[in-house]
Amino acid sequence: MLFDRIIQKLLPTDKRFYLLFEESTKNLLNAAEILTKLPKAKTISEREKLAVQIHAFEHIGDDLTHKIYSELNSTFVTPFDREDIHELASSIDDVLDEIDGSIGRIVLYKIKTVPASVIKLINVLELSIVELHQGVHLLRNIHKTDELQKVLQKVNEYENEADAVFEKAVADLFEHEKHPVQIIKIKEVLVGLETATDKCEDAANVLEGILIKNA
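Above: the chain's sequence. Below: its structure in token form.
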């Protein structure tokens, strides 16, 4: 909204949103780092422990998202458009939900061996989250457009890479896996991880919108 942006430039902005978003993406990054330990977990018990840790981060993420919404409802002047604040918080929360769901399925379905394609998607997802975390930090210095544009470009590249890994993984799964139930199990995990990278790109698109509006 044009009027809101004019007011934002004239009055002091509430810095709490920056801190909350930074905490939110740091929490997301913590969950991603736990997820990367999955391939080394050889027993069901080890995987369950990782799933419990990620689920705890998911609860923290929910709390941070609710805090952002609460601040949004109680703050008259925001550092950028209210719609963007809401959408960015929602997108970050969605990424964490997909991570939590993916490792939860691996445990629930008792998948004994983590496929190489799943490991690849996990690694790409973590790289995307690292960039997203950096992008959120750059909101404090929105005038550093070149740095933020590089971050957005990297997130887009990782999303494209995740798409390619996912498509090949599904094709290989249909070609080589003989058990229909196993196909369903692994495909659901792949879908969750690929969707998580999509949500990272959604968050990056919100950052790009904020950048354009404040240029």
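Residues 16 and 63 are 15 Å apart (CA to CA).
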